[in-house]
Design a protein that fits this description.
single chain; mainly beta; Immunoglobulin-like; 7-stranded mixed sheet; 63 strands; 50% strand
Length: 748
């Protein structure tokens, strides 16, 4: 019995010893069972593929570090494996307690090819085809290609079928993951017959330089979004211009034209002309139009239009506003046609001592001294046309409706009729009368001396405008109007219809009273320049003495108020002489050397997307750079100096590479912006609907941060713009820098 008990105790002790050993081992192995397992232990991939590994740990709070035995073959970030090149690599997941798990990765080669790398198409198929079928192949049989075009206004692509849309060059891309093959497609219309030609895309400068040829343009460049229906490219045929738009989701679409030159109308720069046409659309809409108010169009109903203008001003245009049409474009497209176009030179105005006045813009009035003109909105309705009774010396008009704009009588004094030459000073006194309460505005264009006074119905008001020098581009005006409550510099139509007369008009010579002495009481806003910029006196305040020894103060709001050397400034220059009247003052300035760096390429959004890892800039038409936009990699600065921003926002743009951030991963970008003028900055990630509009003060570095998810169709941008978040900066020019740009993974 004792022996049996002894054996039992021995067995119990043995079990206890074993349990002790096991427990000790358990606690020594990372807190008893801390393990990690991967969702796969081996995987085969092709170059550019991505593959996500999932790690499962026994400890939910465990932290995991991911490593690759050869990141040149397969890289890994947060469990996402990217195949870089053919070969093998082992991906290891390691917990913070030391537990590990591995996955063996085999990467196989992938080769992409395309059936041709260059192609020529024709927009109407006269000598070259209008379409092309491209074939892309891969050594991986299961690959599916994504097709894209760099410019849908030139060529579109769907499933490898390329369709010519408009003249130009487009890059057609077939992509699998991060790998792509390309075909450069050139679209032309050189073989078109004379009565059918596809219109080129052109801004005002191109149109003016090629008089007699119709162009189209979608205003706003980057802010415009449009596409043409197949075969609906802007074209000239049968004596008219036409287009069929598939989309116009933002901006404007315009037909543009400058008479003369190739149209053999005999119209030359400086001539007045009329242009008449019919306009037709397949939807109800309203069209913008040069030299007058908008055109209301009823679907499928031709409207006859006549406009008058002068050659040498901006080209003539008819435009579609996306805000009016984007929600009403039918499935068959939006059709717009101007037909029966006729351009005629207007005869020079004939002065009638007692009769109807001609309508004339400021340029017409300036070119015809000694002749009274009127100007009003096209929508104005007159009971009797504006007239001048020379015997009684009365200008008069009666309107049933003034339209949308102020009504003007305008006149340029002449040497023959008034005895005044350019540069002579004069006064004009006159009496105005209305049969309705309104406002009268009068002055000399270009002299910054306009006055606005209220006038009471049936109460003659005597007015005098004093000592204004006759100028080649100036003219006297008197108008009835209503000031814009939101903008004191703008004036609309009088609030009431009725009769407006100007009588007892007397022009008399006046003694010149020029500035004879001046001192600077406040420096210009800008005194620091770089080589190549031009001096800007805006903001300078002058204490002045006139010839009659009276004193005053002149604040320069327009550079034309003073005279100075407008040549480009040079490094080391320390002063500029500014003249006002007969007085000259010296403004002290600093001119530094132009910054150094690598010039950035200009690129549209499509170009930036197609070239990840490369910074680009974009600017609107008319932008003039003192220093081309550049990148100084050593200092980490992107910078531009502009003498004029043109009409559109200025953009720096960048698409991170997949090596930086795989598609679908979040990142942050931190950067500092600085300008030398008060403006607005807009920044964000295209396609993410996360744009931010931020005011920035002159010479005040502003640090900004944004978060986005990388997307193949997205891109980071930062731009200087107008107060609305679009358009050119309000300031004429200046310096814009972006520095300390840092891309980093977003916090989990």
């Amino acid at each position: 019995m004792t022996k049996r008990i002894t054996k039992g105790i021995a067995k119990l002790l043995s079990v206890l010893v074993c349990l002790t050993v096991l427990l000790t081992a358990c606690f020594s192995l990372a807190a008893c069972g801390d393990t990690v397992e991967l969702s796969a232990t081996e995987h085969t991939m092709y170059v550019s593929d991505t593959f996500r590994l999932t790690a499962t740990t026994s400890d939910e709070d465990a932290l995991i570090e991911w490593t690759s035995s050869d990141s040149s073959v397969a890289s890994v970030r947060r469990g996402v494996v990217t195949a870089e090149k053919a070969g093998t690599a082992t991906i290891t997941a390691t917990t913070d307690s030391g537990a590990t798990a591995t996955c063996d990765i085999t990467v196989l080669d992938r080769t992409l090819t395309i059936s041709q790398t260059e192609a020529a198409l024709d927009v109407v198929g006269v000598e070259a085809p209008t379409t092309l079928t491209l074939t892309a192949t891969s050594t991986v049989s299961t690959d599916t290609f994504t097709w894209a075009t760099s410019d849908p206004a030139v060529a579109t692509v769907e499933g490898g079928v390329v369709t010519a849309v408009g003249m130009g060059t487009a890059t057609i891309t077939a992509s699998v993951g991060s790998m792509s093959v390309y075909c450069i497609v050139t679209v032309d219309n050189s073989s078109l017959p004379d009565d059918y030609r596809v219109l080129a895309k052109g801004q005002n400068s191109a149109v003016a330089a090629d008089a007699g040829v119709w162009y189209y343009h979608a205003d706003g460049n980057e802010n415009s979004s449009y596409s043409f229906m197949p075969g609906g490219t802007p074209s000239y045929q049968d004596g008219g211009v036409q287009v069929t738009l598939a989309t116009l989701s933002s901006g404007y679409f315009r037909f543009r034209y400058q008479p003369g030159g190739k149209d053999e109308t005999g119209v030359e720069v400086g001539d007045n002309f009329t242009i008449s046409f019919t306009v037709e659309s397949n939807i109800d809409t309203r069209l913008g139009c040069s030299a007058g108010s908008s055109i209301t169009v009823t679907a499928n109903t031709p409207v006859e239009v006549t406009r008058s203008a002068a050659v040498g001003e901006t080209p003539f245009y008819v435009s579609l506003n996306s805000e009016l049409v984007k929600d009403s474009i039918p499935a068959e497209g939006l059709y717009l046609r101007l037909g029966n176009i006729k351009v005629e030179k207007m005869e020079d105005p004939v002065y009638d001592d007692n009769g109807e006045l001609d309508q004339g813009k400021m340029s017409v009035v300036s070119a015809n001294p000694g002749i009274w003109f009127y100007n009003a909105a096209d929508s104005a309705v007159f009971s009797a046309k504006p007239n001048y009774d020379a015997e009684e010396g009365v200008l008069s008009v009666t309107a049933d409706s003034w339209g949308s704009d102020a009504f003007y009588f305008r006149y340029q004094p002449s040497e023959e009729d008034d005895g005044f030459s350019v540069g002579d000073f004069f006064t004009v006194s006159f009496t105005v009368q209305t049969d309705f309460d309104t406002n009268v505005r009068y002055g000399y264009e270009g002299a910054h001396n306009a006055q606005v006074v209220p006038i009471t119905a049936n109460t003659p008001l005597e007015l005098t405008m004093e000592s204004t020098a006759v100028g080649e581009d100036g003219l006297f005006f008197v108008s009835v109007c209503t000031p814009d409550p939101n903008d004191s510099s703008k004036f609309g139509a009088p609030a009431s219809a009725g009769t407006f007369t100007v009588s007892e008009i007397v022009f008399e010579a006046a003694e010149a009273n020029p500035v004879v002495d001046a001192t600077i009481s406040a420096q210009p806003t800008k005194v620091d320049y770089i080589t190549g910029e031009t001096f800007d006196p805006t903001g300078m305040v002058l204490d002045v003495t006139y010839a009659d020894q009276t004193t005053g103060q002149i604040t320069v709001t327009d550079p034309a108020q003073v005279s100075f050397d407008a040549a480009a400034l040079t490094e080391g220059q320390t002063s500029v002489e500014v003249t006002v009247g007969e007085a000259t003052v010296t403004v002290t300035i600093t001119v530094s050397a132009a910054p150094q760096g690598t010039a950035l390429p200009q690129g549209s959004m499509g170009t930036v997307r197609a070239n990840p890892g490369v910074w680009h800039y974009n600017a609107g038409s008319g932008a003039a750079f003192v220093v081309a936009p550049y990148q100084n990699e050593e200092e980490g600065v992107f910078s531009v100096v502009a003498s004029s921003w043109g009409k559109d926002s200025f953009y720096f743009r960048y698409q991170p590479t997949e090596e930086q951030f795989a598609n679908g991963t979040q990142f942050t970008v931190t950067f500092t912006v600085e300008t030398d003028f008060d403006t607005e900055v807009r920044y964000g990630y295209e396609g993410a609907d996360n744009a931010v509009h931020q005011p920035v003060q002159a010479n005040t570095p502003t640090q900004l941060t944004m978060t986005a998810t990388r997307d193949a169709d997205g891109l980071f941008f930062v731009c200087v713009c107008g107060a609305s978040g679009s358009g050119a900066p309000a300031h004429a020019g200046g310096t814009f820098t972006v520095s300390n740009v840092t891309f980093a993974p977003a916090a989990a």
